[in-house]
Amino acid sequence: MLTTYTFHVSGTHCAACRILIEDILKEQDFVKSAKVDLKKEIVQIETDSGKDQGELAQVLNEKIKQNGYILSVEKKIQENTQDNVIWHAIPIGLVFLILFFLLQKSGILNFSIGGKTTPTTSFIIGLIASVSSCLVVVGGLILSLSAKIAEDDRELNKKPFFLFHLGRLLGFAFLGGILGLIGGAIGINFVFSAILGIIASLIMILLGINLLGILKKNTLTLPSHIFSFFRKVEHTTLAPIVVGVGTFFLPCGFTQSMQVVALSSESFTSGFLTMFAFALGTLPVLAFLSFGSISFAHSKYAPLFFKSAGVIVLGLGVFALLAGLAGLGIIDPLFNI
Amino acid sequence: MGGSNDEATRNNVGIKNGIQYVTINAGGGYYPNLSSAQAGIPTKLIVKTRGVYDCSSALFIPSINYQNILPQTGDTEIDIGIPQIGEPLRGICGMGMYNFAVNFD
Question: Is A332 helix (H, G, I), strand (E, B) or coil?
């Protein structure tokens, strides 16, 4: 005989959590159906087990506890695991941030390459750029978007990431070619890229807070048009490509130097090759960031990963915002890394 | 003012033919980070780059509205006019990561 029980569930911070909890619960032989209502934070199960609700709560809680959720008969006012995860995530995120800034400070990346810029040197410059301060904006944006998409989409959907990187590679190549074609006719506009950088940093801060889930209802409600932008990034073909191409204009000293090289080459082919080789050089680290995110997001470390990523993204976002404002001369520079 | 002035250097400042030259090396930041020079005489900044591709090659000096991508290797001369006392010159890279200042006294 089937009985329906309603439990309270806490620790749910994303749409994907619903599917995850339902899957875990349905794996149990005695659970015939499970349905999570995220808004009410309840889960309804149909079961043929003879156990009473208290026993069931205990058994099922064991199963979902490791993923950071708590099932209970009574509504829990304060959830504890959520807090535990965040206390692990903050030091992890901070260690990453500190290591990153130490790497910048260390001077290891202050190389110099003399002579003519060839596609080979462009590739090497790309490799270095991808672990340099450019990572603050471009990498931070990729990490935040990847984690956000992975969090919203429980299906292992790698398509937007492939499209993003494809867009970035081809966008850099073609725009580089166009720069070469135009030659010295145009300048690269600092203000334009600084404003783009500030927009990117605001997106990072927003997504960082969202990933951390520190606000009241565990999610910061994004304005609906921004939300629909993310849905587009996730589910259309064009949007990830456009975002990938758009990274060409994000502020990054290395990118800007390479754009000047492409400009002064005064030929479509060499501009194309220079920027393509540069983008190719940045690919390993950026691909690791995005594909690494989805691997982590589908492991049992997912809650920890999302929160650590949130700390990192928030830190980078604040840094990029302050640097961007200083770059525009709005505030005095606060850092000198 | 006092604290930061202590670290300011004058080693990179020289006067030739009535023009004061302040030399800054760009690459992984700007060095020296803080310099002191004389106010009231025509002054030029020389920014040296040696195989530089990082942010410091994208130089922005808000007070004279100078923005330029420096050559990968070369010496770039920037005319900053006649600086006044107490109006330090601040340069910053395009992303705002690196900066330098020259005080005038």
Answer: coil
CA dihedral (A24, A25, A31, A33) in degrees, to 10, reads -100
Tens-digit pLDDT profile for residues A75-86: 654 444 556 777
CB distance B54–A197 less than 8 Å?
no
* Domain extents in chain A: 3-78, 81-327
How is chain B split into domains, by residue range?
A: 2-104
Mention every residue, 6+ apart, whose C-beta is less than 8 A from residue A39: none
Q: What CA–CA distance (Å, rounded) separates A181 from A164?
A: 25
Helix (H) or strand (E) holding B91: strand B89-93
Is ipTM beyond 0.95?
no
First to last CA, chain B: 12
Angle (nearest 5°) at CA B56 between B52 and B59: 115
- Are A257 and B52 within 8 A, CB to CB? yes
Pick the CATH number of A3-78 from 3.30.559.10, 3.40.50.1820, 3.30.70.100, 3.90.800.10: 3.30.70.100
Q: Out of A160-169, A183-192, B45-54, B66-75, which region has the weakest mean confidence (pLDDT)?
A: A183-192
Question: By the 8 A CB rule, do A285 and A129 touch?
Answer: no
Is A113 in contact with B62 (Cβ distance < 8 A)?
no
Check whether the bond before A333 is cis (ω within 30° of 0).
Answer: no
Residue A192 has pLDDT above 50, yes or no: yes
Q: How confident is the model at residue B44 (pLDDT cuts 50, 70, 90)?
A: very high
Specify the fold of B2-104.
Answer: Immunoglobulin-like (2.60.40)
Q: Which member of B29, B53, B56 has the closest CB to residue A125?
A: B53
Whether residue A250 contacts residue A286, with contact meaning beta carbons closer than 8 Å, is answered with no
Nearest by CB to A336, from B51, B72, B99: name it: B99
Are A133 and B52 a contacting pair at CB < 8 A? no
- pLDDT above 80: residue A139: yes
Checking if the pLDDT of A170 tops 50, the result is yes
Q: What is the pLDDT of residues A208-232, one digit of tens each?
A: 888 887 654 444 555 556 666 666 6
Whether the Cβ atoms of residue A197 and residue A252 lie closer than 8 Å to each other: no
